[in-house]
Amino acid sequence: MSDAPFRILPRITERNEAFWSSGQDGRLRFQRCGLCRYWIHPHSVLCPQCLGKDLAYEAVSGRAVVHTFTVNHQPWMPVPELPFALAIVELPEQEGLRLTTVIVNCPLDDVAIGMPVQVTFEAHEDENIWIPMFEPIRESQ
Amino acid sequence: MTRPEHLTVISGVGQSDIGRRLFRDPLELTLDACVAAIEDAGLTTRDIDGISTYPGAAGEPPGFTGAGAVEVHDALRLELGWWSGGLERPGQLGAVIDACLAVAFGLARHVLCFRSVWEGSAQGSGGRAAVMPGGSSGRSAPRASGFMEWVLPYGAPSAAPWIAMMAQRHFHEFGTTPEQLGQIAVNARRNAALNPKAIYTDPMSLDDYLASRVIATPLRLFDCDVPCDGGTAMIVSHVDTVPDLRKPPIRVEAVGTALRGRPSWDQFDDLTTMALRDAAAQMWSRTDLVPTDVRVAELYDGFSFITMAWLEALGFCGKGEAGPFVEGGHTIARDGVLPLNTHGGQLSAGRLHGFGFLHEACVQLWGEAGERQVPGSPEVGVAGAGGGPLAGSLLLTRSR
């Protein structure tokens, strides 16, 4: 048994498996169109830009910027930590390519819009799921 | 050419008893509202030939719907020319707008529109978590899919933190303050004190608001609507039936249903506004009236920030200016330039989920709002419902 905290996990399908298992090698991946190179999120079966069906998951840099966030205090469901910082981060790879996530390894008072962050993963190895989370980019890195 | 909206009127409205926890049969609450609306219009069940409801029959989450179209159809033994019930539409009032479409198209002459909830009783003493997937009731949600795929793994099953992130972005871009946001809740409470059906009627100051516990920054407890039990209904009728009606109806001047951005809580282009931007713009494109004609505004406040977004989208103030617009509370008070949420909104009058705003707009235009009636005999009102990727609005005028 892994020591992963309780989470409601995503239902894994052929379409999203590569996203949720991506963190196994420490990289974050999104679907991308092989024809026009558009990044697609959430996952689909065709490219919304060119309608091509040649889609594959490709790694992104793992860096992002906090677009907005909230420090959530309300216990809606069991969570490892309360309060916690829920955020929408935007990836530099494409304007508007966003992911809802949590900001970790950061004092809640320090979370701010515009803050540069990088991906880290919470492993749920038994399920082959690595939940992408984001933490401040350390200057030394 | 006549605008299709002008073929439609709202001929009657009705409401059941409303309470925090009534522990009544939800079908009874639904039918109480329906029968009241039919009688208000001066019609009988034999006249009703259409049904439109949001969200239709649904088992989950508990309390979210009191009855679907089929139950009401059969309970009242209606003979229908058209009917519809469902969740995927431009917000809760999308059901009423659909009724307008059916009437204008000639499929029905009197459409019964309803929305009922029993979320108060369903939650019991367990709070919101009692009806959340994975919440304290132990209701299982083994795996997340749909939009929940992107939020449930992070412990955010409620729209509260999603809307909180929109509010935070608005605060960041435009300098909106908690004191400004608080005026939406304080105004609602002030109005609720004059509404005999409201849930919360005790006076609430801005300091009381600021002292309430944080739910998800910048939203506090009193930025969130209060779950309740109750039903709301209205009849959308064809303008040709006006001579058959008990009283001069409310005219539908224009509706808005547009959603141009991505239908997503986190991928929408501008998180400080979302779908209601598009619905409001479309509504104004379909009328010669302008925002300064509106004398009463009933705008969705499932969370207080959504009302701010509606105020901006509808052009009552500029983009990003809702904070200064509501500051101090005078502009939006019942005797202000733009009386807002005159029944107390969902924040204080109860989460009747969208339909309460349209009900109140009609009551105000009819001059039937009793103690809370806004002065000056308003002739133009607007009702807007929905937040995030859901939004629909109606511009209404009183028959002269």
Describe this structure in words.
The complex is a heterodimer of chains A (141) and B (400). Chain A has 1 helix and 9 strands. Chain A has a 5-stranded antiparallel β-sheet, with no helix packed on it. A 3-stranded antiparallel β-sheet of chain A has the order 3-2-4, with no helix packed on it. The mean pLDDT of chain A is 95. In chain A, a hairpin with a 7-residue loop joins strand 6 (84-90) and strand 7. Helices cover 3% and strands 38% of the residues of chain A. The N and C termini of chain A lie far apart (32 Å). Chain A has one domain (17-136). Chain B has a 9-stranded mixed β-sheet, with helices on both faces. Chain B has a two-stranded antiparallel sheet with strand order 6-7. Chain B has a domain at 4-123 and 227-244: 3-Layer(aba) Sandwich (Peroxisomal Thiolase, Chain A, domain 1). The model of chain B has no long low-confidence stretch (mean pLDDT 95). Chain B has 12 helices and 12 strands. Chain B has 400 residues and is of the alpha/beta class. Chain B starts with 7 loop residues before the first strand and ends with a strand. In chain B, helix 6 crosses helix 9 and helix 8 runs parallel beside helix 9 (304-313). Classes of the chains: A mainly beta (141), B alpha/beta (400). At the A-B interface, strand 1, strand 5, strand 6 and strand 7 of A face strand 5, helix 5 and strand 6 of B.
